[in-house]
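From the pipeline queue, job 12 of 40. The input is one protein chain; the requested action is below.

Action: predict structure.
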Amino acid sequence: MMKGWSYMKTKRIITAACAFALALSMAYAPLAETGIKSGFGITASAEDKKYGYLNYISDGTQIYITGLNDFSTTVIQIPDTIEKLPVTTIEDYAFAKSKTGSQTNIRRVVLGKNVTGIGERAFFAQSKLNSITVNDALKKVGDSAFRSTGLKEVDFKEGLTTLNASAFQDCVDLEKITIPSTVTEIYEFCFSGCKSLKMLDIQGNLTYLGAEVCTNDTALTEVKIAGVAEVKQYSFKGCSSLVSVQLPDNLNRIYGEAFGGCTSLKTINLPEGLATVDAYVFTNCTSLLRLDVPKSLTSFGNMWYGYATTSSGSKINDAVMGVCRRSAAQTYAMDKGFNYVYLDMVYGDITNDGKVDSKDAMKSVAFAKKTVKAQYVDETDAADVNFDGKLDSKDALTIINAVKNKKPIQVKN
């Protein structure tokens, strides 16, 4: 009895499962038949239709371009509509070398006015592609979409929001790219290996900038970044021609080796509010002989500045740090044996309260008489207004006169 009950129950369960599977397959049958999108750059299987030299599919509301049916085509004009429906997407791998019989005949692409997305590797390795006309509707460019193409210049329009990973990686002929203020995300390796790119200007609402975004872009001379709170690891490593960098005002962290090997970089402004720099951030920046460090910077990685290599850790002898009094940067410079200068020193202000007054005068006299010793290095530096390396009556007299006459101390450093 128990065996028969168990068998019948099992049979009913199997029957119910089969029925559910059949219903599920029927429910999703239209997806397979029509090619409805299941995500950006991903389309369920569907039978391609032809429109001239283009292949496409439709979901009944919009058109997706899936590739070529004539591999000798040199100019691709994406139409605005097909079957009276808007052409919105160029699919994954649509014109990639691997999907065109290894042919690389495409020279030029013109996007129709309704194209909003370009899929993953859509034009990958089309090495002769040197021109693209971009529309106003484009929102996203997929992973490796134009990787290893021959593009020389790209002028994106306002409205673009996302450049995915490796979108232009190894485009060795790319000299100029216009990135509109509407872009919020630029992912890893996006412009890495673009050895002809001279300038990267990212202004506006950027919230994410991926790692290695411009690694080894050896022609890059100028970088302007706004919006992001972090510069990721290796972002500009090996950009040996880089001389000018403008960092975001809200920058909080710079990750390891972000500017490693930027041998032409002579100056960079670290914004107040920056809290952390990781190891080797400016290692082998052999021309960066002076770096002013904001007081907000409290966390330092190993050999983050002033070293010529990451392997031996040899110091750059002429490296100087600009530091604030009693800051973490001053402690770092002293611990590592770097030369440093003060950014906020008021000479004669021994007490570090921003003014030279009777308290400082009294302390300078005590230093001269050697009845009191300095608690901090910067006290000695502030008191030695004659810059002779000792605290004596000359320094005390200068400070007393400054207090009496209510005039700042004129010093020559």
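Job complete. The CA atoms of residues 385 and 395 lie 6 Å apart.
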